[in-house]
Amino acid sequence: MIRRVKGTRDILPPDSLLWQKVEAIANEIFSGFGYDEIRLPALEPTELFVRSVGEGTDIVAKEMYTFEDRKGRSLTLRPEGTASVARAFIENGLGQRPQPVRLSYIGPMWRYERMQRGRYRQFAQIGIEILGAYSPTADVEVLLALHTFLAALGFDDLVIALNNLGDPEDRVRFITELKNELAVHKDELCGDCQRRWDTNPLRILDCKVARCGELVAETSPITAFVSEDAKQHVDRVTESLETLGITVERNPRLVRGLDYYLRTVFEIISPELGKNTVICGGGRYDRLISDLGGKAVPGIGFAIGEDRLIDVLPQSFKESVLDRKIVAILPLGDTAVAAGLGLARVLIHRGFKCRTEVTGRSLKAGLKWAQKNKASVVIILGEQEMQQGEAIVRDLERGQQESVKLENLNARISEIMTGTETV
Ligand code: HAM
What we know:
binds histidyl-adenosine monophosphate, 5-stranded mixed sheet, 8-stranded mixed sheet, 16 strands, alpha+beta, single chain, elongated
């Protein structure tokens, strides 16, 4: 047997229905806020991620699916979407459009990670980005869109953790001070943090090893190094969010695993999946487009891990999607087959979900099949009844059965399925 590649998943029905619904709601809400879809390639030049996500990050140093194509060009399966959006912005001259430009995307990303629940090597992200707005109002809009989307899925207990990373200049001063303060304890840091010391010292802040956490807790927070301008920016974001009734928790230790961020950064953690499993991460990246060779165009956005989101969907949302009633159609005999499928076509147009028996089961086996399919109603098209212009409708939920004239069938099924019948 050929097995799927480690870290990839087959999403089977009925779970795939949850994915479709989540994506439909994402498209509706984000598009409502003005973020229409950009479809990006899965393959990008490796250099794009090296220059944006950053050489010292775990993603670029350890996790990319990178290979040479037949002409020896180094390509990478995208590990995230923001870098591609920035590239596409420059390459397609989106700076010529009315600013700011709002974009959304949904699709698979690849990272070679150690697998565990909620951590895959191919996973999907749902993201939005707004490019061309320095104002904190853009940050607020992005977070409001995120909050609105999550609320539409029925989440009411998710907390947005937010921090101010300052500007890159602030960060240089912070890192120097962090290293000064930690220098005497350098030997006590874990092996990973010893490596991070040179490659990506900011990540020492969110190391999950207990001793590293204790040492970091003693150091001055990054917020102490943030310029007045950056401070005012992020304070205005949190104030406006409060006004909108959206609570954010300030976390001065929050850093993100990608180099392009500055000022506002945020994450959402699911209490259910555990402290280390982030459902959504995002932030501002005002220098990314210029670092990639474009003009000075600011940006902010986020990406939700769709696999993780689906894993913790509220029960009520899942039920509303998965408990859709089914009409089973059971044609008995050759002449009824086409009529059965024709009937399905009509009912589908009316918005019902149908399942037609297509393997030639008998009445008894067909009823069992309908029950196994959790049908609410089964329409039995027997040859004799059809000759009389009738079908038998069996309401499996109430255990009732009746003969219905074919011309009244649609109306009767509608009544039964929507519960508007008068018995
Ligand atoms: P990120 O934090 O690297 O940010 O990823 C965003 C989300 O993708 C994570 O919070 C997580 O839910 C999901 N994710 C990441 N890796 C995995 C994995 N191995 N398995 C399952 N889910 C995963 C970014 O990618 C930024 N581009 C977000 C952004 C957009 N910032 C600004 N705009």
